[in-house]
Structure formats: C-alpha cells, structure tokens
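Hi team,

As requested, here is the filled-out complex form for the biotin run. I kept the field names the same as last time so the parser does not choke. Let me know if anything looks off before we queue the next batch.

— J.
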Amino acid sequence: MHSLELNRGKFVSGEELAESFGVTRAAIWKAVESLREEGHRITAVTNKGYKLEKFSDILTAKGIKSHLKNDSKVTRVICLTETDSTNNYAKRLAVNGESHGTLIAANHQTSGRGRRGHNFESPAGKGLYMSLILRPNCDAGKFQMITVADAVAVCLAVEDLYPESRGSLGIKWVNDVYTRGKKISGILTEAVTGFESGEIESVITGIGINVSHWDFPKEAGNAGSIFEDENMMFGRDELCARVADYVMAFAENLDDPQIISEYRKRSILTGREVSFMKGERKCYGHVEGIDDSGGLVIVNESGEKEILRSGEVFMIRDEEKIS
Ligand code: BTN
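And here is what came back:
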C-alpha cells in the first residue's frame, strides 16, 4: 500500500512491486485485490500496472497505524465508522482510565461539537475527526498550550504531506487553521475532572479537518477544505497519523520553543486591527503578536497593552467575521 500511496495517481508496474517486495506478481495481484476489498480505489491496467486513485481515501485503524512513526507516542488507535463525537467517545474512555496517547478517529460524527456550543459539520468521508486522550504532566495553566500545539501540528502535518501548501496555511488565534481565506480546521480541547478528586485527570483534545468537503451548508460560514477538488495528494489515514505524532511529541514538552515559534510564523492576526468583546463592551486594538504562552498581545485604543487568553477576535478591515 505504501508504494502505491507514494505514487498516488500514477501507475506502478506489477513487476516493479513484485521485485521490491521479493514476491511473485500473482501475490501482488492478490494483495491489491484485498486492498480493493477494504475499499481502496485501485485501478489495474494491463502493461501499466496498478494506480491508487487520487480520490481514494478510506480511514482505517490499520492504515493509520501503518503511517505512525516507529517511535510514535500514540499507544492505541480506535477508528470508528460513526460516532456522536470523538471527544465524547474519548471522554467516556478517559473516565474509565484509558491511557495517555489513545487516539480515536471517526469517518463520521453525528453530533460533532465546536467551541462555544457550535456544531462542527462532520459528514462521512469528507473530513478527519480525531481526538487524543492526554494525561500531561503539567499544571492546568499549560493546557492552552495543547490547543496551540494542535494548530501547529495540523499545519506541519499538511505541509509535510503536501509541500506545495507551505506558506499558504495560517492560524487564526487561537486555534483555527485557514487556507485560501477559508477555515479548514478547528480544535476543541476539554478537561476531564475526576468525580471524587475534583482535579483534572486527563485532557481530550479534538481536531476536525475538512479534507474533501465542497458543499458546506450556509451556517458553516467560511469553511473550506484542504483540497479544492478530487485531486488529493494524500489520504486521511496518513494525515491522522502525522497530526497525532506531532501532537504527542509536543505534549511531551509543552515548553518546547518550537511550538510557539511555528505558531507565530503562521499567525494571521499579527499586525492586524481587530475588535473583541469585553463583557458587553466592544473594544478595538492592534495585534502585536503572540506571547510565550499563546496569549494574543493587543495594544488597545488607549495605547495600553492587553493580553487575551480566550475569547473571539474579529479582523476589522471590513468588519468581516472570519471565525
Ligand atoms: C471549532 O472549530 O469550534 C472546534 C471544532 C472541533 C471539531 C473536532 S472534530 C473531532 C472532535 N470531536 C468533536 O465533537 N469536536 C472535535
């Protein structure tokens, strides 16, 4: 499968495949047949060989595992055809003691959740919906860094797999990933508190990425997808593994300066005029940048510096809401 994936959209000869694996061409044919049975879209043409179609994109635990790094910190992979929300599923596991590093991915969410009670459109086959259970060894003050690290992880993963996207991915504070002016990814991080201890026992960090969703309902605002059409450069299995590996590596050391420096490089709001709400009052300011713990540094109308730790911020060039 790897050889076909590396050559997505191109024919690889049966002979070449047989030679590289040291097996017969008949064995290759059999292996391709079983991949097709799993749902991979592979075209076979005499004298040309086999081609994994660019739009072939199925999500399986086997596929995700095959793309994890050898020293991956992901400890378990659960891949679901459908669930209410991978964050809900992860929470149910976490309260029963599921370990750090468990990854839950789903092909479809029936009640995908966004921040501030919003829905997250999660149709089957068109996006990647994933959650990780973390038991980070740090105080609650550092939890915002998990969300910051997730946004960086999404950008780095897409850029690794699709180098042409470099320079076009941006992060809108605090955790939305944009490309071509459209939001392609959102993050929802939630704490699970022990019933008796009242302390945070684990953190569920959920990431939604639109991969090949091109028919959003009006309510989805300015949502977009990584790919503009069926010409897809990678599948969700690979994307899921890459994002999970980055998140797990960052979670090992949330103080790693690479996290914030990669975030700053992609911060869309830096240098922009913005508006934001403070209670009932609408405020304006100029964004200076991102501080070391992921806060948004703003110089307000009175020329004072303020640091926002949460909330929503709008760019005010044309008062257009971009979140
Ligand atoms: C947002 O944009 O407001 C956050 C969206 C987060 C969506 C992801 S999809 C996987 C996980 N499960 C959910 O129900 N939500 C998160």
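Two things worth flagging: Residues 85-87, 109, 112-115, 118, 120, 129-131, 186-188, 206-208 surround biotin (CB under 6 Å). Helices lie at 2-6, 14-21, 25-38, 61-67, 86-95, 144-161, 236-252, 257-266.

Thanks,
J.
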